[in-house]
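TASK: fixed-backbone design
INPUT:
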């Protein structure tokens, strides 16, 4: 939803308030709008129509989300799992390496946050538990958002590290070779077509290493 949908959203929430004898304050409406901002006003309206027919109490935002996007919980879990693998890759390779994940959503998130070097450096700037909490929250929230409109079969371009960025002028004129990206697997259902390159091993459900 956008700011143009605020009035329509307020009407929907006020209508639910009438049905369930719930006072809808401006503060409450703002909280609900922020929680559902990732979805269209049409989606929210359809969810509200279903809620009126099936719920005996005023709905929470999570009820709207469950109706609009039944797989949102799976995406949230996936985002948390992916972050740990990304974190391991940062610790193992740092900002100097050029990396390529088998999950294009990860690339969308990191590119949005300024690229691999900026992303790694932002982690290094986390010096308190609060910093860590917000850094993780930003990544997982963006991962959930980008998951809704990213082609999971896409093979994204590698994320350049410091070595590649520093030597780009020499690479462009043939005086240096671009570094081979480190390929990082985060899922067993997708393989990148580069069997000669180094992979980070991840565990399958059977506990055995999963490598290409």
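OUTPUT:
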């Amino acid at each position: 939803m956008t700011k143009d949908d605020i009035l329509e959203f307020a009407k929907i929430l006020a209508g639910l308030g009438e049905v369930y004898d719930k006072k809808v304050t401006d503060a409450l409406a703002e909280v609900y709008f922020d929680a559902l901002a990732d979805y269209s006003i049409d989606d929210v309206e359809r969810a509200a129509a279903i809620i009126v027919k099936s719920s005996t109490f005023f709905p929470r935002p999570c009820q709207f989300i469950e109706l609009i996007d039944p797989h949102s919980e799976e995406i949230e879990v996936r985002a948390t799992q992916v972050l740990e693998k990304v974190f391991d890759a940062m610790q193992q390779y740092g900002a100097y390496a050029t990396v390529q994940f088998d999950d294009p959503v990860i690339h969308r998130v990191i590119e949005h946050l300024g690229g691999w070097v900026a992303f790694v450096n932002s982690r290094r700037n986390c010096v308190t538990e609060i910093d860590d909490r917000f850094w993780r929250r930003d990544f997982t929230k963006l991962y959930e958002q980008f998951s809704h409109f990213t082609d999971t079969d896409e093979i994204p371009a590698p994320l350049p590290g410091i070595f590649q960025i520093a030597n780009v002028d020499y690479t462009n004129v043939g005086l240096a070779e671009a570094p081979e990206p480190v390929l990082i697997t985060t899922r067993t259902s997708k393989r990148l077509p580069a069997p000669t390159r180094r992979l980070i091993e991840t565990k399958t459900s059977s506990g055995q290493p999963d490598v290409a």
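COMMENT: The first strand starts at residue 99 and ends at 101.
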